[in-house]
Amino acid sequence: MDLLLLEKALIGLFIAMVLAIAISKLRGKRFKLPPGPLPVPIFGNWLQVGDDLNHRNLTELANKFGDIFMLRMGQRSLVVVSSPELAKEVLHTQGVEFGSRTRNVVFDIFTGKGQDMVFTVYGEHWRKMRRIMTVPFFTNKVVQQYRQGWEDEAASVVEDVKKNPESATTGVVLRQRLQLMMYNNMYRIMFDRRFESEDDPLFLKLRALNGERSRLAQSFDYNYGDFIPILRPFLRGYLKTCKEVKETRLKLFKDYFVDERKKLANTKKTTNEGLKCAIDHMLDAQQKGEINEDNLLYIVENINVAAIETTLWSIEWGIAELVNHPEIQRKLRNELDTVLGPGVQITEPDAIKLPYLQAVIKETLRLRMAIPLLVPHMNLHNAKLGGYDIPAESKILVNAWWLANNPANWKNPEEFRPERFLEEESKVEANGNDFRYLPFGVGRRSCPGIILALPILAITIGRLVQNFELLPPPGHSKLDTTEKGGQFSLHILKHSTIVAKPRVF
Ligand code: HEM
């Protein structure tokens, strides 16, 4: 069977090679493509540039080929944009043309071929999904409905860390407890649910399935089948695993959360609008026929991948930078003590009175941008960008990390210095008011979760710094902040052990 496949693949490769040469000759005549390394038939630039196209490797290529360059990854075109002007063109001026998302065989499985919102193409379906998600998730009313819940979750993190005798001596991996907190913050909004402890079996199952989903979708292991479609039959085993994970995961969302909520709604009908959680709004939309049950489950899937880890990575980076910069940590603690009073716990409305805390968060999101290349964009049709022709269905990466870390645009960008956002960059906000700084993107496909992420970051980082002195573990003067870049993400390679010494007020 495998021999037959191999034979088919070799014939296919030959045909693809002849076609690729013919097409590239034709294209060369008609199109003015962006610069880039010279592609070879079939593989394009894949063998030259490798799999790991993280923000730093792409920055190196931009330094060589310019602010817009193109790579051919097998049959796929990848265009990388690395200047604020071109980012504005992609995200704002030509936001419709470049407002779609790329798809591939693996994402097609996890999103039911674009029945979701995050990974779907720009159009009627996306608009409807984004509209339906706005009221339950992305308004200030939601922040006000849940902020006390987030404050309680942060308080319970503080309590648990204090209870653990290791916290103040050898240290603990704070991330683990913060992960439970982030699940609780989001599951409260979605389902009015929370998990009691890190050992809760349902939480463990959910976390494992979400982890597996991210690993499978972000892996480079399926590139060959994506870049060279003729090799796709060899992906059968991989795709089978993806399908199993997807089905088990959606079934878990349905059986344990959606159906549970339906049952509850049937037994005690809630008339108070204020008590509705997101799933109630979405079930209303389903009842009105605006979405079907699959769409609803894919919304739950999207929130699980878009909201929890991104915010957690940012918290983790923020804490690591504060441990490694004790003078900044002290200055932040001092602001909290002075503005709120020692021991008075920060709440969501306080954030506006705490400019240094906001600057620390902005600086974390600048230097350690959680999604450094944004979520890949795509043009459905042939387009023009920076004077070049962009073939239809190209993957467009905006190197947002480089925009925010390019020494041509920022003073000593490699330094963690929150003061820059109170001094020379005081007008720059995280909402995309400056195309050099786009931690949440900007425009049509920008992150709607910014309205939740910023207060959650402020409450969590604020409470930890108020209540603890955060230090590296004994025998270390600094935490290891080596980065790990995935296809979408920039996170810390090793989850740090941190000593958290409780403060006495
Ligand atoms: C610090 C935390 C977060 C960061 C840094 C972040 C960043 C981003 C970025 C860069 C994008 C892509 C923008 C683009 O492609 O142009 C995005 C998209 C998205 N984010 Fe976030 N995000 C965060 C938290 C959240 C939260 C808490 C939620 C939901 C509750 C959320 C929901 C989404 C959704 C639904 C999209 C897709 C929007 C679309 O395609 O139309 N994010 N986010």
- What does the oligomeric state look like here? single chain
Tell me the distance between the termini: 72 Å
Helix content: 40-55%
| Beta-strand fraction estimate | 5-15%
What is the number of helical segments per DSSP (H or I, 4+ residues)?
A: 17
Listed once per kind, the bound small molecules are: protoporphyrin IX containing FE
- Uncertain segments: none
Secondary-structure-based class equals: alpha+beta
What is the fourth-level CATH superfamily?
Cytochrome P450
CATH topology label: Cytochrome p450
Query: How much is the average pLDDT?
Result: 93
Radius of gyration over alpha carbons?
A: 24 Å
Q: What is the helix/strand order? A: HHHEEHHHHHHHHHHHHEEEEHHEEEE
What is the annotated CATH architecture?
Orthogonal Bundle
Largest sheet: 4 strands, mixed
Global shape: globular
Total of domains = 1
Using the coordinates above, name the CATH class: Mainly Alpha
List how many beta strands DSSP finds.
10
GO molecular function: heme binding; iron ion binding; trans-cinnamate 4-monooxygenase activity
Protein name: Trans-cinnamate 4-monooxygenase
Family: Belongs to the cytochrome P450 family.
Membrane topology: Single-pass membrane protein
Notable traits:
alpha+beta, Cytochrome p450, two-stranded antiparallel ribbon, 17 helices, 52% helix, 8% strand, binds protoporphyrin IX containing FE, iron ion binding, monooxygenase, iron, Cyt_P450_E_grp-I, Trans-cinnamate 4-monooxygenase
